[in-house]
Amino acid sequence: MNNQDPIADMLTRIRNANRTGRKTVNVLNSKICRGIAQVLSDEGYIDGFDLVEDGRQGLIRIRLRYALDGDKVIHEIVRISKPGRRIYKPVEALPNVMNGLGIAVVSTSKGVMSDRRAREANVGGELLCVVN
After folding, report:
1. Residues 20-37: pLDDT tens digits?
2. Which helix H or strand E contains 9, and what residues bound it?
3. Strand partners, 112
4. Are the C-beta atoms of 39 and 112 separated by less than 8 Å?
């Protein structure tokens, strides 16, 4: 299968697995998807991820996180920048998602990071997605 937008595919797989209450989800392995998974793990939205070899490009197995009473930790995950319309923001214009309760994932020259870390490093970049 030819996948033109691996980020949108990853976010859709996470969204669908989260909606049905699955514990893990497999997404295709790429450097940008590993970066997004690392940000989600660092910010506490997922329990972690593992790299799985499948003889081709590999997979990322993401362990989704739920609260003790079964509530979802990821309520909404939205793709912002798309292949047809890239959205770049300077550090001053990075969104403050839900007054700091959510995160924006930004691809910067220093790697993929959350909006909080981008502000600390004083770098802007491509706004990939918003999670809350």
Report:
1. 999 999 999 999 999 999
2. helix 6-20
3. 107
4. yes
